[in-house]
């Protein structure tokens, strides 16, 4: 099964973000993540992607939900995206901004990410981040996009295992 991961890395009051160099979401601030490889569990993929994109070796990672979506009426139900979160020690040093093959890495303040007037962050990122930080639940999300504009979404709380 094809899938991708989305990985929120928190350090104090900031999240490590990536301004994408290439599509999808070129020029927009997103979090780390990527495609799973054969026989790799989503959690393993998240840990690998975090390391490949930032050099950070996370020790603790938690699962926070699954995302399906449709874009321009094409449904991506069979290619879910899994959301993960990890908090790293305040003394961990990753000097940013940092240019990488994927784009520019930088620590962004949570208030900046969640600001309703911020048009530089992909629109579903603040939704996920609020739920990760302020809800003690796992959610199943479904997003409807048209020409990279978020039109609607739904979320449903799932049982925590």
TrEMBL record:
One example GO MF annotation: hydrolase activity
Keywords annotated in UniProt: Hydrolase
Domain Nudix hydrolase: 1-134
Domain of life from the UniProt record: Bacteria
Hydrolase listed as a keyword: yes
UniProt keyword Hydrolase, yes or no: yes
Name recorded for this polypeptide: 7,8-dihydro-8-oxoguanine triphosphatase
Organism placement in taxonomy: Bacteria, Thermotogati, Thermotogota, Thermotogae, Petrotogales
